[in-house]
Design goal:
heterotrimer; A alpha/beta; B alpha+beta; C mainly alpha; A: alpha/beta; six-stranded mixed beta sheet; four-stranded antiparallel beta sheet; 13 helices; globular; C: mainly alpha; 3 strands
Chain lengths: ~450, ~280, ~325
């Protein structure tokens, strides 16, 4: 019996809906044009280097990182830059995007397109981090924090453990699952690259128990490599949250306001690790990623390897089109993803899934009176009391009260709102509360 | 028998005396010092405790008034009580009352269901503040009204109501006391506390959209497109980021109707009188 | 047109109504036991009480508050069932309706309806009846297993009454005195008492259902029962008096009903586990004190109501540990 890890505080078990778990990753068709946002990460938008009319290849640098907390943006297709202007994004707010008209499929010549797996790392730690920066890699689990910053150890800090997050606890999503099954060896090599960059020999790939194929593949292969191990976790949402995963694997809690590196941990998503492998060992910058297209309204759900900037309508079309009764289209998982206002919005480095939702299961219900059951406090993985936060938000000057309730520690996982029997939108109140304390 | 009565009287009397002494000392020690003047000023105040004056509440405002010298006093103003209340307080203090023009909250958006038809449906029950975070809104205008009524809920004076027909909040100028609660709550800053222009009346641009004219018009037919036709009529009017702003100093009585007619999209609103 | 909404985009299907339905199912074994031991009279008491509670809630919403009626959430059904479980089977119907009125209108609607009441409505109804009609509330028919009506109309005393009035015994004995029914009878419910409280077995079955459906956590019932057992054990060992017999206290009276269904009422119990433990231990303490030292043989209702009043205070101070906070 293998020991299964999990975090002790809170958590829920929503319906898994992993309908695409056995669908192999398919290369998505190239769309007629791609729109690539210059800000797909936390931090400053990248500085645009191209102008209208420029010819680019897949892998050509379009925009350069502006400062430390920023990331490079590369072209994902070959063709001509036709527009550089403010375009409505997923939420309808406009952001700077570069539109490239697709002509053929030329890649930059430096990219190693052979299928061989590179098993030798000749680079030093500094060279690896420089390559990661040039590859424009950001945390692909959803946060979008530039990866080079996470791999650069701050002064006086030492890494002890690299945790590779293969949890994917959100319902529906299977992109990481498929990646681990199909690119297991590349992911392990990516882990070794990061090990080298951090100067350690201790990478742990955490996979939850509802991915038996991925566990088997990675476990068998990891035996051949030094410094890469697998730990199996229980299935529980939000186990993929950074703080929860550290808690599950190491048994230590991260005090409020501290970063994982403060207790010697670095957490990277499986997708990010694969991108690190491709960038560092195959010279291929991050310009495509695996996207799960799924949901009850999707005729042919599947996992697609899509170029960054592909309009989501193109992927929806390839998986059977958009039926008329679709009520919501969500980017990401149903727990933490965002609804889109238009289907021309592009796939970004952070898009792990496109969900076509309809029906009562995914509709908002009318809230009724709070029955004081306390379930919201029971399931909160941060140990907060959402019911108290909801009351405090309506106070005249709530900032101090809210700070005492530790609202800042809310990870916005949505467990409280999911579990509330009265269907009270508790997470909304927590978000408003976070705005209130930020105001002061 | 008599002894019993005397003992009882002494015992109870003694207890009462001790208790009274304790109460006396406690009340002396923990007495809350209140200024006589502040109490009298507080009696004049509306006691809405809305915080519109910038103080924590009416008691706080009264204390500030009581401690203020003439210069400081000129900066204190209770928008809810208005000139009448300030006059009373000023006479208590023996100062001259500061004269402020009467103000009212205005909504700088006309994105109702006709001007800015909905392209998406907001499926949730909570508030504008959440809707603002997750999308640009039903019409697509990133600076327009979200039609969810946080301002109506926050108004303590019943001056804001929701017009079901247009889907917009409406300010009842006879009830509005310019407390500024709606200004603070609106995530898009659509409310402005505007003073009446010198000759009475009010003229303002009812739009906050900073997108280019064509983009703005796509979402809302009553959007300001930054055409600067209004700016030709008065030097005070500024155009910034494709958006015009008419400062309160522009004389509404003189220019109001001309400005309204000059605007090609109808983004400028002119009211001859704001109250009564 | 597409819809937009804030995350999460899915919510549990276990809404208030589903949870209330689970509580009703958990109460069903006790209803069955009541009918087995008290026949048609038990059914009459239960139906009157439930009908009364639902009716009062409906009327109050419809004609007094003029809001959408909230009877659909089934909470009034639970209040009605719990009230009836606290009454003897001989209770006249009109008195039950008065109890239902007190429970729904005074204890629930007047405080603002579901989720806002301070005191457990069913217990308020019961205590009001207990104080207003002490004679009718303390007639305990002898149980008559599997017969529709009482064959002889005999009445008797509850085990707690017997314990209360027992002569001080000098002997240290773990055995039951002859006038008490055996432990087995107390466990299955073949004893005098209120219709729903007699059968510990049926109530424990309900408890298992509630735990399995995750309606409640185990903390309140277990801590409550443990506190009563521990305290009576201490008193029994210290004084050697038969009236503190721990197992008899655990199995008789309204303790099981109170610990499993009354003290765990969401609205009137604390919201964090820590608070629930404090609440449950307090209930246990008060129950033993009232049973042992007051004029009443039974103390569960009063104990739970007193602790209900302390819930806001407990909620204020019993805060759970935040993630990352020092242990």
């Amino acid at each position: 019996m293998v020991k299964k890890y999990t975090f002790p505080m809170g958590g829920i078990h929503p319906d898994k809906h992993k309908i695409t778990a056995s669908c192999p990753i398919i290369k998505a068709e190239l769309p007629p044009f791609v729109t690539i946002p210059v800000k797909q990460h936390i931090g400053a938008p990248a500085k645009i280097l191209v102008t209208k009319g420029d010819k680019v290849k897949a892998g050509t640098l379009l925009a350069d990182a502006d400062g430390i907390v920023s990331a490079d943006v590369h072209s994902s297709v070959s063709g001509e830059v036709t527009k550089i202007e403010d375009t409505p994004g997923a939420g309808g707010y406009t952001e700077k995007m570069i539109t490239v008209k697709v002509e053929g499929d030329d890649w930059e010549s430096s990219i190693d397109r052979t299928p061989d797996i590179v098993k030798e790392i000749k680079l030093t730690a500094e060279e690896i981090i420089a390559k990661i920066r040039e590859g424009g890699i950001v945390g692909m689990g959803g946060a979008g924090y530039p990866t080079p910053i996470k791999t650069t150890l701050p002064e006086g800090k030492k890494a002890e453990m690299l945790i590779i997050n293969g949890i994917e606890c959100e319902p529906f999503l299977t992109a990481d699952d498929r990646l681990m099954i199909e690119k297991a060896e590349q992911i392990i090599m990516g882990a070794k690259v990061l090990n080298r960059a951090l100067g350690i020999q201790n990478a742990v790939i955490a996979i939850d128990e509802n991915k038996p194929d991925a566990i088997e593949r990675i476990t068998n292969l990891s035996k051949l490599y030094v410094g890469v191990n697998v730990k199996v976790c229980k299935t529980k949402y939000p186990q993929g949250g950074e703080r929860q995963l550290i808690n599950a694997i190491t048994g230590r809690e991260l005090p409020s306001g501290k970063l994982p590196i403060d207790i010697g941990c670095v957490v990277q998503n499986v997708g990010t690790v694969f991108a690190v492998y491709e960038t560092v060992l195959k010279n291929k910058p991050l310009f495509e990623r695996v996207v799960t297209v799924s949901g009850p309204g999707c005729a042919h759900p599947g996992n697609y390897l899509a170029r960054i900037g592909t309009p989501i309508s193109s992927l929806i079309k390839q998986s059977g089109g958009q039926p008329d009764d679709i009520e919501k289209i969500v980017l990401g998982g149903p727990m933490m993803g965002n609804t889109v206002t238009n289907t021309e919005t592009p796939v970004t480095k952070l898009t792990s899934g496109i969900l076509l939702l309809n029906g009562a299961e995914f509709a908002k219900h009318e809230p009724t009176a709070c029955i004081r059951c306390g379930k919201c406090a029971l399931v909160c993985p941060a140990g907060l009391r959402p019911f108290a936060i909801r009351q405090a938000v309506s106070f005249n000057d709530p900032a101090d009260t809210l700070r005492r309730l530790h609202v800042g520690d809310c990870i916005e996982c949505g467990c409280c709102a999911y579990t509330c029997p009265a269907h009270i939108p508790l997470l909304d109140y927590c978000k408003i509360a976070k705005q209130e304390i930020r105001k002061k | 028998m008599n002894d019993l009565i005397i003992v009882n009287m002494l015992l109870l009397g003694g207890t009462a005396l001790v208790a009274a002494l304790i109460l006396y000392f406690v009340s002396k020690k923990f007495a809350v010092r209140r200024d006589e003047m502040a109490i009298r000023i507080a009696e004049c105040l509306p006691q809405a405790n809305c915080g519109a004056c910038g103080k924590a509440g009416c008691a706080d405002f009264a204390a500030a008034c009581a401690g203020a010298d003439e210069n400081e006093f000129a900066n204190l103003y209770c928008p809810v009580g208005g000139a009448a209340v300030m006059q009373k307080i000023a006479s208590l203090k023996g100062f001259a009352a500061t004269d402020k023009p009467s103000t009212v909250a205005v909504l700088r958006c006309q994105g109702n269901c006709r001007n800015a038809p909905a392209k998406i449906i907001y499926d949730a029950v909570s508030s504008c503040r959440i809707a603002h975070r997750i999308s640009s809104g039903q019409s697509g205008c990133p600076d327009g009204c979200l039609h969810l009524g946080d301002c109506v809920k926050v108004c303590k004076f019943g001056a804001l109501s929701f017009d079901e027909k247009s889907g917009m909040p409406v300010v009842d100028t006879s009830k509005c006391v310019s407390c500024g609660a709606c200004v603070k709550i609106c995530p898009r800053g659509l409310f402005e506390i505007r003073p009446q222009s010198p000759a009475g009346g009010m003229v303002y641009v009812a739009c906050r959209n900073k997108q280019k004219g064509a983009v703005a018009r796509k979402n809302c037919s009553a959007a300001c497109i930054g055409c600067a036709k209004c700016a030709k009529l008065s030097d005070l009017i500024r155009i910034e980021d494709n958006l015009s702003y008419i400062p309160p100093a522009v004389d509404a009585g003189e220019l109001g109707s001309a400005l309204q007619q000059a605007c090609p999209t109808g983004a400028i609103i002119y009211k001859e009188r704001i109250r009564g | 047109m597409l819809k937009i909404s804030a995350n999460p985009h899915t919510q549990t299907s276990r809404d208030t109504r589903a949870i209330m339905l689970d509580v009703i199912i958990a109460l069903m074994p006790a209803a069955l036991a009541a009918m087995l031991f008290f026949g048609i009279d038990a059914l009459r008491v239960m139906l009157t009480s439930v009908a009364g509670c639902v009716m009062f809630e409906y009327l109050a919403c419809r004609y007094w508050l003029k809001i959408k009626t909230t009877t659909g959430d089934l909470s009034a059904v639970i209040t009605g069932l719990l009230l009836s479980y606290n009454l003897p089977s001989t209770m006249p119907c009109w008195m039950i309706l008065i109890g239902a009125f007190m429970a729904i209108i005074v204890a629930k609607i007047c405080f603002g309806g579901l989720g806002k009441n301070i005191f457990n409505p069913a217990l308020v109804g019961r205590v009001f009846l207990f104080i207003s009609f002490p004679v009718q509330m303390t007639i305990w028919p002898k149980p008559y297993f599997l017969q529709w009506t009482s064959p002889d109309g005999q009445t008797g005393a509850t085990p707690l009454n017997i314990l209360k009035n027992i002569e001080i015994s000098s002997e240290h004995s773990m055995y039951l005195p002859d006038d008490l029914p055996g432990y087995w009878n107390m466990f299955v419910g073949n004893i005098g008492g209120c219709i729903g409280e007699v059968s510990s077995l049926a109530l424990l079955l309900g408890f298992v259902w509630l735990l399995w459906r995750r309606v409640i956590t185990w903390h309140i019932p277990v801590y409550y029962l443990a506190a009563v057992f521990a305290l009576t054990s201490v008193l029994y060992l210290a004084t050697g008096e038969i009236k503190f017999l721990p197992l008899a206290h655990l199995l008789s009276g309204g303790l099981m009903l109170g610990a499993i269904f009354m003290a765990t009422d969401y609205t009137t119990s604390p919201m964090t586990i820590k608070g629930q433990i404090i609440f449950a231990v307090g209930c246990g303490l008060l129950t033993v004190i009232i049973r042992a030292f007051s004029a009443y043989p039974e103390g569960v209702s009063f104990a739970v109501l007193i602790m209900n009043a302390l819930v806001p205070l407990i909620d204020k101070f019993a805060v759970q540990r935040y993630y990352g906070e020092k242990k």
